[in-house]
Design goal:
There is one protein chain. By secondary structure, this protein is α+β, with helices and mostly antiparallel strands. It has one domain (about 10-200): Aminopeptidase, CATH 3.40.630.30. The protein has six helices and ten strands, in the order E-E-E-E-H-H-H-E-E-E-H-E-H-E-E-H. Helix 1 crosses helix 3 (about 60-70). The longest helix has 16 residues, at about 125-140. The two termini are about 20 Å apart.
Length: about 200
């Protein structure tokens, strides 16, 4: 079930001042709240989760500051990231978070990233969450193209992209300087017209 966000159009830009609430069979995706800071820090600072992440909070205070900054950011504002909480639908417990980058130009591709607490990985939550998000992006928001940039050593993320029907478009060798080392970058993509067909 998907709650319809109230969209405002401004010179062909789509802005939603209120975060949407997306619900699946097991999950609810909504805005991160102040009470999420400790859990967010706990899994984001975990070495297994942080290995492929660009942002790792130093402490709970930094995690709280990140949540506060997100609270001030309108949803779908061009040129910025929005972070959605991934929660257990029944209990509301924070299981992870999902970042969406809305490009400055609407014709450019959307991108996303997912982090899950280690205790909640390998249960299909990432795919379930992304299914709801892709329905939002391609359906209500009218996005044309969604991409994912993945470290090829991150096998769960590779599997997620393939499970979503995303197409492998490039493998850039040692193209990124990341935490003191040159790493590869694999790019997956999916077009709006491909989404229902590939998911089916």
């Amino acid at each position: 079930m998907l709650a319809s966000p109230a969209l405002l159009r401004d010179h062909d830009r789509m802005i939603d001042r209120d975060y949407p609430v997306l619900e699946t069979a097991r999950l609810r995706l909504d805005r991160l709240g102040a009470d999420d800071a400790e859990v967010l820090f706990a899994y984001r600072a975990d070495a297994y989760v942080a290995r492929y992440q660009g942002w790792v909070p130093c402490d709970v205070k930094e995690a709280a500051a990140f949540i506060a900054e997100q609270a001030r950011r309108p949803f779908a504002e061009p040129g910025g990231w929005n972070q959605l909480a991934i929660r257990a639908r029944a209990s509301g417990a924070l299981l992870g978070d999902l970042g969406l980058y809305f490009p400055a130009r609407r014709e450019d591709a959307m991108s996303f990233g997912i982090s899950l607490h280690p205790a909640h990985q390998h249960r299909g939550y990432a795919r379930e969450a992304m299914h709801a998000v892709l329905e939002l992006l391609f359906g209500q928001l009218g996005c044309h193209r969604v991409v994912a940039s993945v470290d090829p050593r991150n096998t769960p993320s590779l599997a997620l992209c393939r499970a979503l029907g995303m197409r492998l478009e490039a493998h850039h060798v040692e193209s990124l300087w990341f935490r003191g080392d040159w790493v590869d970058d694999v790019v997956f993509a999916l077009l709006a017209r491909e989404w229902p067909i590939r998911e089916a």
